[in-house]
User: Fold these one by one.
Assistant:
Number 1:
Amino acid sequence: MKSRLFIIIALSIISVYSLNALSDRDSQLIRGNGGTLINAEDFGVFYEPWAMTFLPDGELLITEKPGNLYKYNIETRNRIKVSGVPAVAYGGQGGLGDIILHPDYRNNHIVYLSYAEAGSAGRRGAAVAMAELGINDMGAELKNLKVIWRQDPKATGSGHYSHRLAFDSSGYLYITSGERQQQTPAQDWTVNLGKIIRLHDDGTVPADNPFQDRGELAKTFWTLGHRNMLGIALDRRGRLWVHEMGPRHGDELNLIVKGENYGWPLVSWGNQYSGADIPDHDTRPEFQQPEAYWVPSIAPSGLVIYSGDLFNSWQDNAIMGGLVSQSLIRVETAGPETSEIERFPMGSRIREVEQGPEGALWVLEDGKNARLRKLTPLSAD
């Protein structure tokens, strides 16, 4: 009898332990280095996810680097693979990239996606396409896909595509175009690498872009002198923010000003990976300096400027994911100085950050077994 009672108690303890372990896997409290507690709740696992965006009905579109696009119901965890995605050049940092909605998506159902595209002789480059997202009882598909922009020229290697996308309130499309680890193209007027691009929603070039006398390609440039930009967002004042990875340290958060040169590879707060020195930003005042920078590197990826009510005291803060730093980073942008406020250790590389329709923050981890996580304050903020 005692033996049977022991077994029952032991099984009960194991069951409670298993439930707690499951709970620990599904939900976690995370304390920032400023003492703030947030709750992280898991909502599924993806294979090398890269970007996400919310549809008007609250479902998500999520990209995976190998070339998969899913429509994902966060309540039921049901995912539908979207057909019609263009072929991607998968490998290294390349593959399917960003996904955003047209500002008038409710009426036209147009989405924009970026991806690495193969060229000749092993060369690759980023491309941006627009398409109509068709959803019915049978599934989901991209229809009438049209490429509206390409990196020119394509380059060898598989790094620094950047290809993050954002629309401003006037309907202009911004594209971050990385320098493809080539460095010098960032200052070259004859190539669109290392630039921020500004286009109309159909891919045509606005007549008020700043560089009208530097050649046809330069007419698409909004700014130049950039390295690898994996986060782009607009704040409530309409200001455009972009972060970019430095070389060996010196990651930057930049306030983007029309027609400015941000200095790469001539200046940086970091050094070359070889250890070779790069002149600091303050040695060349003709270049636009970052609003904030990080030494050592955080490897930023994903960016939102928070505008919700759930994290009320976080309004107008930049929320950035960190790859190397495996963190979520909160930065003040509305005050006289832009500076890091708090850092949350996430325990994994963070690839993407989005604000949900009810003000929660959503993050995608990086890698082959990456979680989608919903972040909420522990109590009313």
Number 2:
Amino acid sequence: MTRGTRDDRYGPSDRGLRGRLKDEAVRAALRFVFGAYLRVRVEGGDHLPASGYLVCFNHPSWSDPLILLAWWPDRSRRFWIFGPRERDMRIGRRNALIRWSERGIAFQPGGRDIIDVTRRASRVLRHGGILAIAGEGRLSDREGEALPLQVGLGHFALMAGVPVVPVAVHGTRWLRLGKTVRIRIGDPVRLTDLPPGRRGAVELTARVQTALAGLLEGGREGPPPGPVGRWISETFNERPWLSE
């Protein structure tokens, strides 16, 4: 690829007929599966940036990135998910589906491939794509609260020169039939008046944390559902610290 040209694997959705059909198939399948069990409502999708941007969302459930991918209102560009954390993406049916969908940027535990992952994440953003990151770095423990965000999201945004869109996910900590899940999209956090280097990444991350906390206000964690809903809610979650 020559300098100054776009790589449509990462950016806009005009990837040829086969690529567009795959994108729509992934989105339609996710909307069908989750839409049969939940009601999803999106708020604030009218002020998204006109070019590539990073999405930072809170992460109370395994379902969050899939719901965002299915219902994200910006259809003009490709939506990528930062993850999963896997030692070997060649193993397992779930990983096979992720590889087929071409929507994930997997990374290895311990940051062993951090240089390659950073390069791929920056490429998505620089070529006009959307990269969604669970900025807390792990599942959060409660509805309506976000753990301290990791400064890596600030580094990604600064390296690519793109704004960060804070997104609050309400209602996924416990999933039950017919429950309403709300996706609240905040105003983009721009890269203005930031100090250079790491201090700039730290300051940007702090601004996103404040914006996300505002979007999460009013979120309440209801009682756990019955056995089926509890199984759906927890079967793919990884919270080993709760059993320590």
Number 3:
Amino acid sequence: MVRTAWFWVCLTGGMALGWAPPAVAQAVPTTPARGATAGTLPPPGTPGGAVVYQPGAAFPASGQFFSPGVPQAQLQPAGYLDPAVDHAGENAAQAPLPVQQEPEPEGPWQQARWITAWVSGSEPGLVEQKWDSTWAFPTLSRDYPLVITPGFRWVFFKGPDRPHLPAQALDLTLDLRWICPLGGGWMLDVAVTPGLHSDFQQETSKAFRLPGRLIAVWEQSPQLKWLLGLTYLDRDDVQFLPVAGVIWTPDPCHRLELAVPKPRYAWCYYQDAQLSRWWYVAGEFGGGSWAVERPGGQIDVLNYYDIRLVLGWEQKSKTAWNAFVEAGYVFGRNVDYLNGPGDFEPDDAAIIRAGLTF
């Protein structure tokens, strides 16, 4: 964990010291988009961009969520910081929309999303499939809805035979999120994510987890927002992840999320009245925790985590599906069991990930 902490310090510090916004060659409309962000860890899920909905991203973390009557300045901060829900892809869809005024969906349904990821180069290899759907319901104020996201993730493990790994593991989650205004530019981003996490080969209470997060956001100006909070993962290997940092948007085409656990820089290189295209670089915490049945019938808990550094491309459109694709490097990998032998540290690997939001 010391190596993990040092990585985030170096990555976020490097972004702060080495990045400066390029000059914009043409006048860029500054009409704000409307929406809300929520994905690994990752990812984080993660979450997670205009305003983007990451759970994870965990990402993390990482599609679009739009609520009628909600201006961007109210709901944009902190939504991408969602490692408890998705360690693998939330931050992939978090680039802001600089010019498009997205149509607001009618009714509570907001979006659906599919993400696939492939980690290879060293055993164990991973193949991940994730589907989720976002719904919004008014609470005390229509401007601050309750956001409900049921999700399903399917993880396939590829070797080694020793130590024994399950052929597959599944996450069945329900993310409940509410952004509460406090006045004076302050708000709270509160969420709990009950879920079942197991190989679904046995019945055990160890499969149930109740992660949550509490993030305070201060909007100092429309361009600068500060974050401070904590994410509870309800895992045996990593119980908590701190949330701290700043989101700086100097102009509509550049966005620097200098924050842990998901630092990210996004640059819009093309935009017109219908779509925008982005490049981004990001770091995230990936992995998961599942109740599994070991050889001989023993019930145990498998914990896996890694650190991911990715380069991604994304397109956001008013008339077509939003899409992203990214590739990167996976390191700091660790596999351990709660009760039995078999812990080991896999070698570094590569990751390719893509997704659609509609």
